[in-house]
Design goal:
The protein is α/β, with parallel strands linked by helices. It has one domain: Bacterial extracellular solute-binding protein, family 7 (D-Maltodextrin-Binding Protein, domain 2), CATH 3.40.190.170. Strands 1, 2, 3, 4, 5, 6, 7, 8, 9 and 10 form a 10-stranded mixed sheet that branches. Helix 2 links the parallel strand 1 and strand 2. Helix 2 packs antiparallel against helix 12. The chain is globular and about 60 Å long. It starts with a helix and ends with a helix. The model has no long low-confidence stretch (mean pLDDT 93).
Length: 349
């Protein structure tokens, strides 16, 4: 009996060990396995290291892999886009520093962080300026509007080849926000960005500047009870499991601004320069269309899961625009008053 008991305990221990080992292996499973290249990049003559902090299931992030594959094919394997999403190279502020030094050659920067590179890049974060998908398309496709934006970081040695997005911004909250009075009861998490900080001060709303990785615990513990973000990101990253209301503020488009070290780019052979810029433009344009569909799909999924979508009255939008006038004035001086006026006029603001 003792021998049988000993054997049984040994078998049980082995089973538990194997089970825990399998569970550990499952936990360590590569989250980017589905995006591995279908080619061997070791023979490439040139490498373009491209960073992003988010997950490629978001179309505006996944574009990095589509650019990688297009460039590899067009260059016949001479140029490899070594794409590193999920903050593999660090947080955005750290990567911006590396980008300026040339340690990283490219970055799909969130638009809120991009304003730290050049003030003019902050124009896309101003409330109700580039706030819809249609206005974003007009902004990108009009040389008078896009040119000054894309060249605005040249003093820092950075060029802006293109943009992709992650949908319109709104408020994900644990209690419904139907009016601006409701909004005053919420502590909103906003990004570490100067334009957003100035906007929320002007709106007279309570906010907390917080890194994105800290958000889940802050929501669960009640440190914050609202998020300034997009429906695409909130649904994909499971924030709607806690914050079950979404007020469709639609005051700005969430964007990924493609930043590139110009010194590195200038050293590329001319044919590879053309291949890289063309691939970025083509894939970014396709991705902006994919993002529109992803927005529709993610909103539908969130609604099916019980998330309530709310629209503020038109008068409330007008109030927010009126309260933001000091922000337009301050940032107009940084961005260029004539440029800001031209953008607002051409986009129908």
């Amino acid at each position: 009996m003792k021998k049988l008991l000993s054997i049984s305990l040994t078998l049980l221990a082995l089973t538990l060990l194997l089970t825990s080992g399998n569970a550990l292996a499952e936990k360590k499973k590569d989250p980017l396995a589905a995006w591995k290249p279908a080619f061997d990049p070791s023979g490439a003559e040139y490498t373009y290291i491209l960073s992003n902090i988010s997950h490629p299931v978001i179309e505006g992030v996944g574009v990095g892999y589509r650019i990688r594959d297009a460039v590899w094919e067009k260059s016949n394997g001479r140029l490899f886009v070594d794409y590193r999403p999920l903050a593999q190279l660090g947080g955005e502020k750290d990567v911006i520093s590396k980008l300026k030094l040339g340690a990283v050659q490219g970055m799909l920067s969130s638009s809120v962080a991009a304003a730290n590179v050049a003030d003019r890049l902050g124009i896309v974060n101003l409330p109700y300026v580039v706030d819809t998908f249609d206005k974003l398309d007009k902004f990108r496709n009009d040389p008078e509007l896009w040119g000054p934006f894309s060249e605005s970081a040249m003093r820092s040695g950075i060029m802006v080849p293109d943009i992709t997005g992650y949908g319109p911004y709104g408020w994900a909250t644990t209690t419904p926000v139907r009016t601006l009075e409701d909004a005053k009861k919420i502590n909103f998490r906003i990004a570490q960005a100067p334009v957003n900080t100035d906007t929320y001060k002007a709106w007279g709303l309570k906010f907390t500047v917080m890194p994105w990785p800290d958000v889940p615990q802050a929501l669960q513990t009640g440190v914050i009870n609202g998020l300034d973000h997009t429906a695409i990101v909130c649904n994909i990253t499971k924030k709607f499991t806690i914050a079950k209301s979404f007020t469709e503020l639609n005051y700005a488009q969430g964007l990924f601004v493609h930043l590139m070290n110009k010194r590195w780019f200038d050293k590329l052979p001319q044919d590879l320069q053309e291949i890289l810029i063309t691939a970025i433009a083509e894939e970014s344009a396709k991705t902006r269309e994919l993002t529109k569909q992803q927005y529709t799909d993610q909103v539908a999924k969130a609604k099916e899961a019980g998330v309530e979508f709310i629209q503020l009255p038109a008068a409330s939008k007008e109030t927010l625009i009126k309260k933001a006038q000091p922000v337009y004035a301050t940032w107009g001086q940084k961005i260029g008053t004539d440029y800001l006026a031209k953008v607002r006029s051409k986009l129908g603001n």
